[in-house]
Fold this protein.
Amino acid sequence: MSGEVPLWEVFIRPRNGLAHKHVGSLHATDEVMALQAARDVYTRRGEGNSIWVVPSKAITASDPDQAGENFEPGEKIYRHPTFYEIPDEVGHM
Amino acid sequence: MALFDALLELADDHLVLGHRVSEWCGHAPMLEEDLAMPNMALDVIGTARNLYDYAGKVEGKGRDEDDLAYLRGEREYRNLLLVERPNEDFAHTMLRQLYFAAFMHPYWTAALESPDETVRGIAGKAVKEMAYHIRHTGEWVIRLGDGTEESARRMRDAVTALAIYVDELFEEGAGEGLDALPDRAALRPEWEATIKRIFDEAGLEQVTSPFPQSGGRDGRHGEGLGHMLAEMQSVHRAHPGATW
Amino acid sequence: MYSQGLIGADGRSDETPEFLAAFQARVDAEEKIEPNDDMPEGYRRTLVRQIGQHAHSEIVGMLPEGNWITRAPSLRRKAALLAKVQDEGGHGLYLYSAAETLGVTREQMTEELLDGRAKYSSIFNYPTLSWADIGTIGWLVDGAAIMNQIPLCRCSYGPYARAMIRVCKEESFHQRQGYEIVMKLAQGTPEQKAMAQDALNRWWWPSIMMFGPHDADSQHSDQSMAWKIKRFTNDELRQKFIDATVPQAEYLGLTLPDPDLKWNEEKGGYDHGPINWDEFWSVVKGHGPMARDRIKARRKAWDDGAWVREAALAHAEKRKVRREAAPLAAE
């Protein structure tokens, strides 16, 4: 055949109030078929009430080699509430 | 016994169609469709089971779903000729399912108003399933009709081949005049509208056959149904009275 | 079943000792490896092969059971079997997706299956000859698969582990539906009971063989264990399976076809008779009774479906062109 059927990433929201979560991927020729396939493949046991499909090639991922410079400096202790001392008498804050 | 007969007609439609679709399992054009087709088969087999179960209770002779499904021969089966048509290719299979679902969706919608509580219950579940079948098979009919030259030719062949079985959908059968079940003939405009909407997008023309076929309701079937039932019933009939 | 995926796997790597040691340290710390992470080429190659063969096993596995969907003896059984075979297709799909994160496409893997380069579990090269086979496959073959698959939920490769968690969750009904079928037969008419015993006689040894060669003869096991692609050895899993299955057969009043099978107090498990490895290797190498038919059926589905996939791709292209042309037309 002339071309390969593109890959899509599937995200499902288990129920209202929760965020869509990545559940896997599938192949489909367009977005309508991808949604239907996601319904048939990934919601056979009542896994959710909303589906997103995204072409896999549309996703830009961070480089794992840059994980150190990306994520480790983010750990600043003064961003956490326990860094600050508040007397008990003040009550919950 | 008009209600029993009418329920049996409906049940046979669903079981025979579900059986045909299940024949695809493991042989679909792509893996995603190997998941989609069993979903459709399971939907209609589930409805068939509910209908047989209710028919058995209405009849009151102690026959259960399996007695009704496995111990009647082809002359006793009342299904539409459309649903027993062999799978042929993916185009035929999708179109057959679309024709059936485009009829059953308005049928079950009307049945939601039935004075019969069990019928309303069955309709409530089936109406959503049929809406999805229309969508899924409709999208495929559009892609095949407006895909490649080969797919368009196969789709046109399917339209021609199945045209003679369309009128039978709207024949009243045993349910005629029953309050519990909707009139069938009245549903034709909605069926036509659904098919037209999809065919317009698919670049397909509806074909009206001057020689429509019917007879399924009287047990006058094509030759394929006997083979289908022989296969389906073989294990059950080889062990009379056994439980599974 | 999946452990056979390792047969012929090449886990050698050319990376520097420092790189390999750093990778091994991550694995030893139970860190999951994710798709874009650096990994030894041998690790990647082993996974591609194993996940691919696991996926193929699920897909080919649809055929022997699918053989009885149209003959299931009750509507309840028909629905359950159809749902089960559908699940196998789904599991194949999840696994192909996991393999695709390693840079191989589903089409490539499919072609390898169809031209005989890729293997799949030998068990599916045996025929299903009666309704009892369907129950027995659910009970034994799915039972053996679960033994293999539960430890894989902790496999070091993230996407494989996640796929296996989904598979194991879904598969919990498969073995139970199989055992229930066999139980009904065992408690049924004399003909039904004979059918169940006959199926057990034919499927027992192939099920035992599913765990692959003895540890002493399993060449690539050590590296896979070190990389935590595999977490128990073939013999450990086989032993667990036998110990779990013997009482289940006793409950049914059926006899396992191994005269040497007996409880060994000292090791706290059952001893079993010698496995016919000639048969095993012959089936693995594609000489099982149904091997040609299985691949032929898969090839037919793939070839017959080509026009459908081509049509959908062509239509997608037309949609794209129309969508891009639409704003222009509106101006």
In short: Chain A has a mean pLDDT of 91. Residues 14 and 46 of chain A are 8 Å apart (CA to CA). The beta strands of chain A are 7-13, 21-27, 50-55. The two ends of chain A are 64 Å apart (CA to CA).
